[in-house]
Amino acid sequence: MSIIKLHDKYFKSYISEEQIQEAINSLVKQVYNDCKEETPIFLGILNGCFMFVADFVRQYNGDCEVSFVKLASYEGTNSTGKIKQLVGVNEDLEGRTVVILEDIIDTGNTLQEIYNIFKDKKLKKLKIATLFFKPDVFKKALHIDYIGISIPDKFIVGYGLDYDGLGRNFADIYQLTSKPTMTNIVLFGPPGAGKGTQATFLKEKYGLVHISTGDVFRDNIKNETELGILARTFMDGGDLVPDDVTIKMLKTEIEKNPDANGFIFDGFPRTESQAKALDQYLLEKGEAISGMVALEVAEDLLVQRILNRGKTSGRPDDQNEAKIRNRFNEYKTKTAVLKEYYQNQNKYFGVNGVGDINEITKRLSDVFDKL
Ligand code: IMP
Ligand code: MG
């Protein structure tokens, strides 16, 4: 669930693959019910319908034929201008039941053309099935026999539908949205990588709000907020605080800063389900994670660094090599999942975390500038 960019426009997740398949399943049942005594011809109107037709006919168990047509305009010689014709009708349709499969019916202009063309083809029956329908814009007095999902008058892409050529390949449907205004960064780095120091620089430089989950937890517990008290009951019992409690705390923190340019999330998300919840929450605000920026440092180097720190800090967990390696392994296992999650959205940016502090800040800034 996220925001994507096609050409100059932004689109947000809107209808999932599962919801689409459910709608198709219901359409198939209705059509089958009306056509089971005969062999209908399913006629897809290209290009947008190709995914819909493929999934529809795969679910249809009765006898049927499948064909595709394209609606092409050519300049007419008469004064009314453009006349539409169907390209690709090869079979004799006389006496047959034809079910038009449309991906989307918007104004109904296309549907009107189709009606006009089939009027004198002597069909037995002409039925119209559309996967998506925009009732608020539909202006025609034409009957649509089967409707999958009715949607508001907003442009959608995905599942065969395009915006200026792009987006047809998505399994889900995305809806046009305004440009996100925030820069939201998930900052990652293994223990000892210098994340805290860098976050402090970066929040100043980019005017972002730094949310450190550790601090948020401590504050909530110290101030005995409702969520703090709840979190405590888990911690005192030696259990991990459940995702939904953590997410609620984070949301409260985000909402404390309604005018923020964006956030640096530090120590969150830690699990895929947290990452999904964060995406979903930002989506509802028309925002998204701009990127996950991860400091990459070789394990041996870090272990050495922490051991050195342990000599002066006196922190017991910084003095035991086995324990440090254990923390590191835990980090790797957890982040591997998140790295993949953000990589799948093209939002993972690894940054070399070896070098002096200013140098690393510079490398991070180069990534931040792009986001
Ligand atoms: P009509 O307005 O019903 O004639 O729809 C015309 C065509 O516009 C459809 O077949 C689609 O190709 C395209 N279309 C309408 N609404 C959308 C949309 O929201 N996304 C992508 N294409 C659309
Ligand atoms: Mg179409």
Your description of this structure?
This protein is of the alpha/beta class. 40% of the residues lie in helices and 23% in strands. The strands form three sheets. The chain has a six-stranded mixed sheet with strand order 5-4-3-6-7-8, with helices on both faces. Strands 12-13-11-14-15 form a five-stranded parallel sheet, with helices on both faces. Strand 3, helix 2 and strand 4 form a beta-alpha-beta unit. The model has no long low-confidence stretch (mean pLDDT 91). Inosinic acid binds next to strand 6, helix 3 and strand 9.
Q: How would you describe this structure in keywords?
A:
single chain, alpha/beta, 371 residues, binds magnesium ion, six-stranded mixed β-sheet
What is the gyration radius calculated from CA atoms? 28 Å
Fraction of helical residues: 40-55%
What class would the helix/strand composition place it in? alpha/beta
Number of strands: 15
Strand content: 15-25%
Instruction: Give the overall pLDDT as a whole number.
Output: 91
